[in-house]
Design brief:
single chain; alpha/beta; Rossmann fold; eight-stranded mixed beta sheet; two-stranded antiparallel sheet; 9 helices; 19% strand; globular
Length: 320
């Protein structure tokens, strides 16, 4: 009876392929993109200390709390900017987001800002400039920063970061230049594209398009906007109009049930970033509201940590 045999080199080849496949699967399952090296792990064993109300200007609202560890050494620094309405809000609104960064060894500056024409974006820039001066005192790396803006804080931080034709440090007590390595926008609005020939007017809250009315109507129809029905606000000038290839990469997250923002505006901004060669990662939290207060928050936290490690420490991050 004649039998056939499989050559040993084929069996060996199959074995090697199988071993490689198992290794890749093992890596994808067990490699933690937020895993910290031994030195950082040692640093975060220490408790977090808070230096409260550090002043970066003369107004009572020009202050931030700095969350750090005595063991920090050249730690990445993130500026956290709260949300609110156009005339009120406080850094206490976002304290639940601080541990997202301190858990992976970052230093967090949680800031307030003024609600005036001289405030908003200008104050965020002033806070960053002051951080350049003081971050090393608290064990931080002042060479570049990650900026996290939530809701209104996302609107003003994105415009300040991507709009580079304005001297945001004008009238700041510190004139130290700063570098922004990455931007995270949560539940925010990045403005709409303004075509050539459409005029804008300056208001206490950025710029608003006031004419022509048919353009405003187009914008309302484009987004089927029953959430925000004020034309000037819908078409408000924003970061989307100022992107260039030198701008920082971004992570953008919004909830599917957010009553103030939606994934279409987020995707529009991401598309403009990508068209300029800038990495932009977007994520929609299914069932998430404006504050993303649901069972999906741990997943959001992990995604932010992956992005933060990628931007500030060069860790692997899968862009989708």
């Amino acid at each position: 009876m004649r039998t056939s045999t499989i050559p040993l080199y084929i069996i060996g080849g199959i074995g090697i392929i199988a071993a490689i496949t198992l290794f890749i699967i093992f890596q994808s399952i067990f490699t933690d993109p937020t895993k910290l090296d031994e030195d950082i792990q040692t640093q975060i064993n220490a408790p977090v200390t808070i230096a409260r109300d550090i002043s970066y200007g003369s107004d009572n609202l020009q202050t931030f709390d700095l969350h750090y560890r005595e063991t920090n050494t050249n730690a990445p620094v993130v500026l956290l900017v709260h949300g609110g309405s156009e005339d009120e809000g406080d850094k206490q609104k976002v304290v639940n987001r601080i541990s997202t960064y301190t858990d992976i060894g970052f230093i967090v500056a949680n800031t307030n800002f003024r609600y005036s024409e001289e405030g908003f974006e200008y104050d965020i820039a002033c806070a960053l400039s002051h951080l350049v001066s003081i971050a090393p005192v608290y064990g931080g790396d002042n060479s570049q920063f990650l900026v996290h803006g939530y809701s209104l804080g996302g609107v003003i931080t994105s415009r300040m970061i991507y709009e580079d034709t304005v001297d945001w440090l004008n009238n700041c007590s510190s004139q130290e230049p700063y570098t922004i390595a990455g931007y995270y926008g949560e539940s925010t609005h990045f403005g709409n594209l303004i075509p050539e020939g459409v005029d804008v007017t300056i208001s206490p809250f950025g710029s608003e398009i006031i004419a022509p009315l048919d353009y405003l109507a187009t914008q309302e129809n484009l987004y089927d906007d029953v959430k925000i029905n004020r034309s000037g606000m819908i078409a408000r000038d924003g970061a989307i109009n100022y992107v260039d290839p030198n701008d920082p990469p971004a992570l953008l997250i919004v909830g599917s049930e957010d009553p103030k923002n939606d994934e279409q505006r987020q995707e529009d901004f991401a598309a403009v970033l990508r068209a300029s060669g800038i990495n932009a990662f977007t994520h929609v939290v299914n069932g998430g509201d404006h504050s993303l207060h649901n069972e999906m928050r741990p997943g959001v936290t992990r995604l932010i940590q992956r992005f933060a490690n990628h931007i500030m420490r060069g860790a692997a991050f899968k862009w989708q």
